[in-house]
Description:
two-stranded antiparallel ribbon; mainly alpha
Amino acid sequence: MLLASSAASANWFSDKIARNVDAKKSEIGAGIAVIAQPTINSAEASSRRILEAADQVAGARLGQADALISRQVGGVDVLLEHRIGQIDRIAATRLKEVDGILDKDISRIDAIAAKRIQQIDELLNARLNDVDTLLSNHITDVDERIGSRIDQVDQITEQRLGNVQTFAAKASSVVFSGVLWLVGFACLLVFAAAALWRVYMESAGAWPSGGTLWSRIAGWWNKVHNRLVWQLASGAACIAILFLIFFKVLPRGSTENLVTMHRTAMLRSLEALDLPEARYHASQLKILDPANSVYRGMALKIDLLRDVLSRPALYQTPAGINRTLSRIEQAEAQFGEPRDGDIDTLKGLILFRTNPTRQGEHDAAMLCAAALKRPASESGFALQPLARSYVENYLSHPLPAAEPEAEPDAPEELAPAALAEVVAKAKADAKGRRALTPLSHVLLYDSLVRELTMKSLPAYRRLVEAQAAIESAPPAQRAALIAGRAAAAREVIKAWEDFDEALASHHSLDDTSAAYAVFTLKDAMVSRARAYEKSTAAPIPPVLTEKNYPSAAARARMLPPRVMWAKRYLPNAGSVITFQEAARFRNDEAAAFAFERAFADFLKRKTRETALRASLAAAQLGLAYGETDLAAAIAADPAAPLTPEERKSVERAAREAPVSFL
């Protein structure tokens, strides 16, 4: 009510004010009109006089202007006639010149047109060749797709026929069991009827007339047991012979041979990673023995192997990871204890590829080592070569301070010596077995990277140690040290050149994940080694830029191997990939240069600050080979002890260092 009354009061008040203002305007206007009237009359008379005087002056001025304009128009007419004549003569001359120019231009245009027509003809021929090549490629692709579809149709047909055979065998087994049960029941009925008939016939006249019931039975048995026993025994023998005849004559539907055949074929296909064939045999085993949890687990495991190995994106998204983990849990529930080695190896693969660092590599290695330690199971271990490779990858640069897992279901933490024993035993057990063909590129690439690591990193360490010695040595001794530095640089270069030759010679790596994994390698080390090899100065060579190396030939000699790898493996790489790889090289080169500076400073002056910088730089680069971890060695130097917090930061940087294995 208060708001309503206030609003009503405000409206009323406004209206009142508006009316008051309008009334005031009317009163003011009437007063101004009365006051201003004499002034208006006076102004009107003055204006009339001024206009009359202006009219007289304007008439005189117009007469003067008319005479002046007449004289000017006459002069302009003569001038225009003269100019028109000049223009006519100039136009005639210009038309002749234009005619000559046009003749020349037409000839030139004709030549240019002929040249352009020839270029268009050549371009069309080139495009026709491109179209022909494109059509050939598409025809080849279509042919491959048709062949793939034919193979799929053949495989599906084979599976359907196999299903029919399995169902027929299982149905025959069920029918055989039913008929055999009926025959046995009929034989029992016949034997019971014959036995009752013989007892009745033998009892006629043999039943005693007096005495108790038990005495009568005893007397009856004494009279008939000699003949009745052999008659009943003969009848039972005849019935048993008849049952055996039926058992032998009736067609059996036993599935034991079929189960053995499918199980053997499944394990053989799984060992060769022929997963579609292995999945088919697993499905047949599920039909033949649906209560067997191992066969259900095998079917789930084979599906997991197929999807994880052929669809890497499956474990690169949160949704895909959730589905994969759920499927792994289902398969493990079917197998029970002990756990399946293939599933543990798959878990290690997913762990490493979702976190390709030294810590992820450690976790994968422990899972694979646990799988390798278990005795052979009836479910097979097809991924044993991959599990062994993961452990060997980790042993090429094990973490010096691995964190033990507190969870009860975590794999056992094994020291490098114990891991080496596991690998040696696994190699002995697998002697004579061929490698996994579908994963051969992974095993080959990892072995080449391990060899590169063991050859290049020790030489690179000697190179940086020589650089520190050069900076600390007097000028007279630097020449020999520079020669030693160049020798170490050549060892680094040789290791990378051998690696590149091995890559180029193994064409099985082309168009595989290994062809793209090479770009994750820190090949900036090669450029740094080439800079050291050519340098005869004491300071650390600068990074590869046009400013630091004005000579194009010098820069070309220092280019990293990824330039050749891009031409070999990424011939159609776009500008985005080129920019990305260039940026990756710049970052790796800057990190290598920072380590070289920090490590040289540490060797020259061992303090806590220089030790921390050098150890962190070494940890971030992942400079570890065999039992030697350069970051841990620097951090553990008693001449420059680090604080516990600093040691932890170095260990964390080492665990987070990226790894280039597959």
